[in-house]
Fold these 3 entries.
Entry 1:
Amino acid sequence: MTEIGKINKPEAEKYKNRKKIYFVRNLYLPKNATDKYKIIFDRYWKEVEEHLLKIEAAGKVSKIFCESLYKSGEEARRVLKSMNAALEQIIQKKIEEGAELSPLEDKEIFGSFVDWNNCMMVIRTQTVYDTIQEQLRNVVKERFKHIKSVLENNIGEAEAAMLIMRGEDRDMLELPDDIELFMISPPAYDDLMQFMRDRDEGKEFWRS
């Protein structure tokens, strides 16, 4: 597995015939976000699109996988639009260029993952916490095992896939050894993280 932020033409040629994943950190726009957050958020997705165009020198995106999606086709795009309209626009362009949006999640496993996470938000006792934490760990393992299998079985030789997930989830995902990983990490991402770390503006961001 190779992590690359920038790629030039000689490097691109080296990866042309390999399986590739272009990883995009998924960022959402909360309803109570400040104007400054919205500005950086919009810039982030514009820069993601620009970086994708550059990195496609190593291979055009032919498959698209996104967290939370266990549906395909028009139904999947409707779900995407409701979650993240900026991302949906990028994916729609890739589909128009010939890419295929494919399910990443298993419906039952992902449903359990969401349910156990929701349970963690209302716990009052340590005993219940320990029980739910164990169940959550088990379903997380199941989820990432399924995702690895999907990527392994659906990315062909010399193909490039775009994978959209939360950054912390990528850290838990074990990719097949024959897939090269390219990180899409535009400057706006660092700006957004700095914004979130800023104490004063962080309070503004979380204020409803």
Entry 2:
Amino acid sequence: MSRLVLFNKPFGVLSQFTDGDGHPGLKHHIPLKGVYPAGRLDHDSEGLLLLTDDGDLNQRIANPRHKLEKIYYAQVERIPDEAALEQLRRGVMLNDGPTLPAGARLVEAPEWLWQREPPIRYRAAIPTAWLELRIREGRNRQVRRMTAAAGFPTLRLVRYRIGEWSLDGLEPGQWQCLKLAALGSVSPQPPKRGRF
């Protein structure tokens, strides 16, 4: 039986078990052995990180050719207009080539969102807005680069969903282990609170 761990990665934590560059690794939160991250989430991003002990499932989640949809919430500088949203929807040119078209819309700050420590910088003269972005790629710092290319730098980034799995019910630092008999067959265990 395979294991799939859903982890709500706090800001500042690396997507690896070892510490590095002054940032704590996953070992401070997840005491399980033999599970490995399926993809990554940068230390300055928060939210859903999946880990598994199943190599095939890891490939299904992490390999861009499977085009598994990911949903992000990005707090950006200034308020994007419809032209900027359309640019994100069509795909933007990055230094490593054009992105695939994305879902992009302005939203209110999510009600379920926790306070970040440390909080984002506040500037009274520059308003901020929240975007919901849906992408099917997974390039390095892709969402941040996309919003910057459209003229709206990301201040805070939270990944909410990967495919069928989401953050629902997980506070920052909490994780949940699902046992999978086969892909798509899931038996949940209650969330656990990690140390931070």
Entry 3:
Amino acid sequence: MDSKTTNRKGDVWVFVEAVQGRIAEVSLELLGKGRELADTLGVPLAAMLIGRGVEGLCRALFSHGADKVYLSEHDMLSRYETHAYTAAAVGLIRRYSPQVVVYGATSMGRDLAPRIASTLRAGLTADCTDLEIGDHEEPVSREVHKDLLLQIRPAFGGNIIATIVNPWGWPQMATVREGVMKMPESNGSREGEIVRFSPELSAQDAIVRVVEEVPAERRVNLKAARVIVAGGAGVGSRDNFKLVFDLANVLGAEVGASRAAVDKGYIDKGHQVGQTGTTVRPALYIALGISGQVQHRAGMSDAARILAVNSDPNAPIFSIAHYGITGDINEVVPMMIRAIRKRV
């Protein structure tokens, strides 16, 4: 699909992950951002819903901002399988020519989106942390492309923020990390249009047979945590990270970490908060030994209350903290734990 032939007034689409009759949170988050993009472009917002027996989910998609649902159901789509889902999605995109399609940067989205992009010869930006609509001027020809999707993501190991544009080879497509977009409020009075599409699937689209599904238990759920205690490089060692866990335990909190702490091997990557980790919005975020570089602040600055403990009084984390303690965490944290236990 080339931009010279693609309808530049096409819809903005969000691919909806529906597993076991439930819509993934990231899909609803993307409907919130998709609503902003569609309104800026003056076009409808649509959800692409693929599966079997999933029509009942349409109302929830309308209530979260979708104007249309492009519904593709087939017996071969009862569970996610790359080839069948790719064929169904490509058929929908070729038939209705959206100008933007966004996916969650989940295991499903990261598997499906590149295959769709390859089949359509379209561009794809992975792991975006923000999306906007804007103009782009070619540096040599000075040709101006209006109303492009600005695909914003960390680059060079998170040290810079890159803005990627795709003037040609539409649809413009991106995967977006979970939690970086705010969940839109549900409006049960909203209604929309269901557009049904019968995919042309063949035996070639069923070359993989799923023998058994074994769901992996999610050990860390930072997105849902109301209180997070996070440690940084200033904690000093993997053994010393026990202080972070001890404080989290008395508060009933989840444990987070900065990228520096993860890179040093103090804690597993599943705990990482920031642009290259999980974006969180807890009621309370306690940052222990975290300097507060921009990449980390981008993932937690929306917390309702931030308490920072750092030995460096000039640490950037203090610029966004509601409360700050300058001191050694080896002294401060045990004092905090004792004070909390006395009040319990």
